[in-house]
Design goal:
With 399 residues, the protein is an alpha+beta fold. The protein contains eleven helices and eight strands. The protein has a four-stranded mixed β-sheet, with helices on one face. α7 packs antiparallel against α8.
Length: 399
């Protein structure tokens, strides 16, 4: 499939190089790893060695010095090859970005080199059982314990943090060295709760996980987390306690852009299989691709994927340029457009193959479930429509 875009020659070269790595592994590799209950360690290691995992992280900490524009290219091309790495959305894109923008020097030196070279992985915990997509209803709370073990770190630190709460649908916690947890602290001046971000090591006392049984077959498992009076040093807080929302959305905007890349790559992979099949499958005189009833829907699916990619590129450009407000709107639109385009591309691809589209041999049936992930996570399409109707169109809120 054509991937001509308005990108630079460096971006096109990156696409070509990542596509070659993806072709080395492919869909069957990822499907086998998932069936066996493993993780795509070989692909992760190769991507790290080639500098792809850290392409968006600062050079002074071992990264490539690029941005989300480059990282989204990596994930899209791996997805187009059938082997997307979901933890790229979480570890370098969300956690790496938040730490590089708001972390202390010690946090940057501790985490960023490892996130860049793949030797460290970080999960991200925001979703809760009763909050859903409403980050304002998060009930995981963090309180200061001035008499805690780390009070010797300085009076200005205020002592340890104590975290209590639950999280659900948290990806890859079993392989993560730590989880960046979104909690809420009380503002002493107003009494209101405000979001804050904490690095919670995987072996922290009181931090437990249980796997969620999913119909979706993927290498990255989903977990429910329980934080039962988890004690953290004051240094676990990322950024300013009073700038929680800014820091939070500094991670959520890249998450939406990378989710768009994930969906576009999956849609391209499915569409490529359908096009190849339609070119050669012959039932009557001509290949089935000659019939407009099949050709036109495939063409429409390609157009929708290309349009979604343009919005994703716009969102990445705005984010990398430091326009957080503009990036927020574009990132939500890109995620929405890519999810819809992916679902339609997968559906039409399966339909093009008929019964073969449901066989394991062609590898499309599993994408029927997988393609819906981008419609649901990390935020539902309905919440994106709410955002656009309120923030862009200025319509009144219904909640």
């Amino acid at each position: 499939m054509s991937s001509a875009t308005i990108e630079t020659s460096e971006h096109r070269a990156l696409r070509t190089a990542v596509a070659a790595l993806g072709q080395k592994y492919g869909r069957e590799y990822l499907a086998r790893v998932a069936r066996e209950g493993g993780h795509p360690d070989e692909l992760w290691a190769d991507a790290a060695k080639l500098g792809y995992l850290g392409v968006s992280l600062p050079e002074e900490y071992g990264g490539g010095g690029g941005g989300i524009a480059e990282l989204s290219i990596v994930l899209e091309e791996l997805g187009a090859a059938g082997c997307p790495l979901l933890m790229m959305v979480v570890s370098p894109a969300i956690c790496g970005t938040v730490i590089s923008r708001f972390g202390t020097e010690d946090q940057k030196r501790t985490w960023l080199p490892g996130l860049a070279d793949g030797s460290l992985t970080m999960a991200f915990g925001i979703t809760e059982p009763d909050a859903g997509s409403n980050s304002h209803r998060i009930t995981t709370t963090a309180r200061r314990d001035a008499g805690g073990a780390s009070r010797s770190s300085g009076a200005e630190s205020g002592g340890d943090w104590i975290l209590t709460g639950r999280k659900v649908f948290i990806s890859g916690v079993d392989i993560a060295d730590a989880t960046l947890i979104v909690g809420r602290t009380e503002d002493a001046r107003s009494g209101r709760l405000k979001p804050c971000l904490f690095i919670v090591p995987r072996d922290a006392s009181g931090f437990t996980r249980s796997v969620i049984d999913m119909e979706l077959q993927a290498a990255e498992k989903q977990f429910e987390l329980v934080l039962d009076e988890v004690r953290l040093p004051s240094s676990a807080l990322v950024g300013d306690e009073d700038a929680g929302l800014l820091q939070l959305f500094a991670g959520l905007n890249p998450e939406r852009i990378m989710t768009a890349a994930f969906a576009i790559g999956m849609g391209r992979h499915a569409l490529a299989k359908a096009v190849d099949y339609a070119k050669t499958r012959q039932v009557w005189k001509d290949p089935i691709g000659a019939h407009q009833a099949l050709a036109h829907p495939l063409a429409a699916a390609h157009i929708e994927l290309e349009l979604a990619r343009l919005m994703m590129q716009k969102a990445a450009h705005l984010y990398d340029a430091g326009d957080d407000m503009g990036a927020g709107e574009a990132a939500n639109m890109a995620k929405y457009a890519a999810a819809e385009a992916c679902v339609r591309a997968v559906d039409q691809s399966v339909h093009t193959l008929g019964g073969n589209g449901l066989t394991r041999e062609y590898g499309l049936a599993s994408l029927i479930t997988a393609s819906r992930v981008a419609r649901i996570a990390p935020v539902s399409r309905e919440m994106i429509l709410n955002f656009v109707s309120h923030q862009t169109l200025g319509l009144p809120k219904s909640y």
